[in-house]
Amino acid sequence: MKYIIVTGGVMSGLGKGITTASVGRNLKNKGYKVTAIKIDPYINIDAGTMSPYQHGEVYVLKDGGEVDLDLGNYERFLDTELTRDHNLTTGKIYQTVIDKERKGEYLGKTVQIIPHITNEIKGRIRRIAAKSGADVCLIEVGGTVGDIESMPFLEAVRQMYREEAPENIAFLHVTLVPIDSQGDQKTKPTQHSVKELRELGLTPHVIVARCKKALTESTRSKIALFCDVPVEAVISAHDSADIYEVPLQLENEGLSNFLLKKLLLESKLEVEDTSWKEMVVRMNNCTGKVNVAIVGKYTHLEDSYISIVESLKHGAIETGCNFDITWFDAEAFDDDSNEVEKLSGFDGILVPGGFGERGTEGKMLAIRYARENNIPYLGLCLGMQLAVIEFARNVAGLEGANSSEFDENTPYPVIDLLPEQEDVVDMGATMRLGDYEATLKEGSLAESIYGESVITERHRHRYEVNPNYVDRIEESGMIFSGKNKNRMEIAEVPSNDFYFASQFHPEFKSRPGRPSPPFKAFMDAMLKKSKDKKDQ
Ligand code: GLN
Q1: What's the per-residue H, E or C state across 95-117?
Q2: Is pTM beyond 0.90 here?
Q3: Ligand 1 interacting residues, C-beta cut-off 6 A
Q4: Which of 386, 404, 461 to mutate to test the pocket of ligand 1 (most atoms within 8 A of CB)?
Q5: Residues forming the annotated binding site for UTP?
Q6: Measured in angstroms, how far is the CA atom of residue 338 from the centroid of ligand 1?
Q7: Burial class (CB in 10 A: 0-12, 13-18, 19+), 367
Q8: Domains of the chain (ranges plus CATH)?
Q9: How does pLDDT run across 115-154, given as a tens digit for each residue?
């Protein structure tokens, strides 16, 4: 097994995740089987209990793992499916060690960070890498070098470097090169962060320097000299127009060839896989523009909806058009129902997933607006549940209908807990998570956009459409075109041009070059809407 260990210096938010994913993609293009592990040095067991306000989106894997959004980047760039084991947290490591201690597995020894915690970290990394069957395993250590939290992980990978042959591990350090008011590129922060890394016994083999502009030759040689790496190991990762350009940029800089040399690997393929490059060309050739309104709750932090934005992009690339997102805070509609008129000029309206009552009435005003004005509508999870409630209230005549999540005393709980879920109390175990199948109705929009009759998508929800109201709602013109036994997976309003709402989250399986079918169809519908408007 070959390992590439990615650390970050200077500050957070430099794009370590995208760098890791891009390195992986380039190695995959050369014929290697690549996997990736994200280390998050926080004490939470997983991201499931973390607020999207603080931490960005909770990404959901096929096995139901609720993980850091970087795993979404890995899945998209590597076009792979990972499992919850690929996200290591301090919480998971300590929990295992403490459980072992309670069972007496340490035979009376004092249980310590070194060696017990570090052994657990190394053991897990090696097991996950081996199980994946990959040639190369990327490990991204979250946080910034120097943080107290990440120390045990850095110590563990230091030990690994001692234990493995030197050609099996490469250390890649991502840093920042700021530009001062004179326009000079400053290398001091990089020098200091490499010094900090060295104090922990780690020596970077490659330095990826994030900078607003391409690194100058003198910046490169200065970093090489002061950080003790060859000049070709200083990689300029200057700002690019789109994250999907990053693999191409790093390839141009010779990064993967340098890593292959360090790891004593040769390209496996005669001809490289160029599908990523072709996808980027298609992306840059997109013409025209559609305007989509996203009506949500965490709209001030775009990372909260990163997979949705990426999925729209995947759809747009294959539709051949550009798109603009306008974010609406649903609460603004709650407060003033005239506000919803602002949605009139949009080619499509999307209501994403969410929890809690706040903003739900506003989201329903937006959904009603889409339905009544025949604006393409895509509803995801909560966006589907609210679509059902809105329809029940305003079309099926079930006044006061609601979800029991928001109103326990509603006369019509059209969204409710199914009996088998009512008594779950442990956070993290309460939800229906990960892959489940849905059977699609013949002749439905769902069947036509998926082109198959049974699909598998990822889930993250606790409440469901109440089966007792299904007939009543269907009689009024909304159909449930995707089902899993008594669970409603998709709602459509066939009298509208495009109205598709799913209990699942299709955004987690969308990939560049292989868009999620609902997103592709939504993009097509929006493009048609915008053309129709122009023709009028
Ligand atoms: N709050 C809803 C539920 O728990 C929807 C969840 C979501 O949108 N992810 O079922």
Answers
A1: HHHHHHHHCCCCCCCCCCHHHHH
A2: yes
A3: 353-355, 381-382, 385, 405, 460-463
A4: 461
A5: 12, 186-191, 222
A6: 27
A7: buried
A8: 2-279 (3.40.50.300), 286-535 (3.40.50.880)
A9: 999 999 999 999 999 999 999 999 999 999 989 999 999 9
